[in-house]
Amino acid sequence: MESPAPFPYLEAVVGFMVFMYLFETYLDMRQHAALKLPTLPAPLVGIVSMEKFEKAQAYSLEKSRFHFVHAAVGIVEESATLLLGLLPWTWDKSGSLVGKLGFDQSSEILHTLAFLAVITLWSQVLELPFSLYSTFVIEARHGFNKQTLLLFFRDIIMGLALTVVVGPPIVAAIIVIVQKGGPYLALYLWAFMLLLSLVLMALYPVLIAPLFNKFTPLPEGELRYKIEKLASSLGFPLKKLFVIDGSTRSSHSNAYMYGFYNSKRIVLYDTLISQCKNEEEVVAVIAHELGHWKLSHTMYSFLAMQVLTLLQFGGYTLVRNSTDLFLSFGFTTQPVLIGLILFQHTIMPFHHLVSFALNLVSRAFEFQADAFARSLGYKDSLRAGLIKLQEENLSAMNTDPWYSAYHYSHPPLVERLQALDEASKKEE
Ligand SMILES: [Zn+2]
Predict the structure, then answer these.
(1) What's the Rg (C-alpha) of the chain?
(2) Given CB 3.0 to 4.6 Å as the disulfide criterion, which of 5, 257, 279, 320 pairs with 223?
(3) In Gene Ontology terms, what is a biological process of this protein (predicted)?
């Protein structure tokens, strides 16, 4: 079964990458223009001070300018990597490296691990100037960075060490599963990833997160009492309530929850507690988070992820033996990992569509969680809390509708406040 002219995968992938770069840059330019607007959006006038607005504007504009440079370098890097055949070149070199180190060069697992080590280190090096500039120039200039250089590099090294420990067994398992193959390959791969994510979910809070942050139980007091009361009134299985020392790295603030269905944890950033004026605002933010749980948003997202993973592996099994695909990118052999990487490149258009759709759903979920908190009587404190977080994080006040529709997983503040107000009006 030979087609007369093989499909030009490489050219199509690079062409699409450039197209997406131009499209996203156009959106960035629209957003940049919105950020330059000299006044607050009408619903925030009188609520957010001019001082906060100007600070947020300066921060957003600086991040936006940085992003233009970062994205331009990124597209040059990525297309050069593909067009110059750096992937097959690196694959060959890592094979010889395995041999030089005295290992069995014909082992696909060792060859793949060497290849991954090379490209992981290489991408760390390429990213380093950007993450250094972003952390120690931009974040520092706007008062967010609390990190020392030492902590910064310690985080990178810890991350790499973790990859070295966790990565190889996973990669090896995937290669073995694909090599054993069979008609249900996609199902096996999906089941393996599901098992893996459950194991990581169980290990993460106990073994991994403590490597990077200190978790302390929220001390007894008004705040703890209120959160526990709220959780139990909703039947939320709150097992642990932690404060995390986010302030050692950044003064950005947040709160999140995670855990298996009958054993959940809530984690509050110490910065969230210090930034909100009173406990009610923190509790309102938690009420919003619990809304995601009560309305099964977490479950839906999990299920969506499972379906997408299964579809991806299904697609992969269709092309994994396509000689044309490998040849187009300059590969004369067909290693498992390379097949997965090339497949990921070719489904980029779907990726963009899916992430756009997921953002749409996520924004709908945010409105629902806000409405949930409102129905519990937290309307005013949620309003106040959201405004506080927006101000303290210097988030963009003016947003371009195209840009936010495409990129935002959370609706812009103005839209959230409007939705809260309208819902209350309807009830009057
Ligand atoms: Zn939310």
Answers:
(1) 24
(2) 279
(3) CAAX-box protein processing
Instruction: Give pLDDT, residue 142.
Output: 87
The pair of structure tokens assigned to 185 is 């390959």
pLDDT tens-digit map of 82-101: 999 999 999 999 999 998 98
Better-predicted residue by pLDDT, 366 or 49: 366
pLDDT tens per residue across span 203-256 = 888 888 888 888 999 999 899 999 999 999 999 999 989 998 877 777 676 788
Structure tokens at 204: 């993460």
Report the distance separating Cα 313 and Cα 182, nearest Å: 13
Distance 264 CA to ligand 1 centre (A): 16
Q: Cα(234)–Cα(245) distance, rounded to whole angstroms? A: 28
> What is the C-alpha separation between 212 and 197, in angstroms, rounded?
20
Structure tokens at 271: 């910065």
- Decide if 257 contacts 266 (C-beta within 8 A): yes
Residue 109: per-residue pLDDT: 93
- 327 with 211: CB under 8 angstroms? no
Does 3 have pLDDT greater than 60?
Answer: no
Question: How many angstroms separate the alpha carbon of residue 34 from the centre of ligand 1?
Answer: 24
Tell me the CA–centroid distance for residue 361 and ligand 1, in Å.
12
Give me the active site residues, please: 289, 370
Count CA within 13 A, CB hemisphere, residue 397. 28
CA angle 297, 301, 303 (to 5 degrees): 115
pLDDT, one tens digit per residue, over 135-158 is 999 989 988 888 899 999 998 999
Residue 109: name the closest of 50, 47, 168 by CA.
168
Q: Tell me whether residue 288 is annotated as binding.
A: yes
Task: Please report the pLDDT score of residue 393 as a whole number.
Answer: 82
376, containing H or E segment: none
| Residue 134 contacts residue 66 (beta carbons within 8 Å) | yes
Task: Give the distance (Å) from ligand 1 centre to CA of residue 143.
Answer: 25
C-alpha span between 376 and 287 (Å, rounded): 8
d(CA 261, CA 424): 32
Strand partners, 250: 145
Average pLDDT in the chain = 90
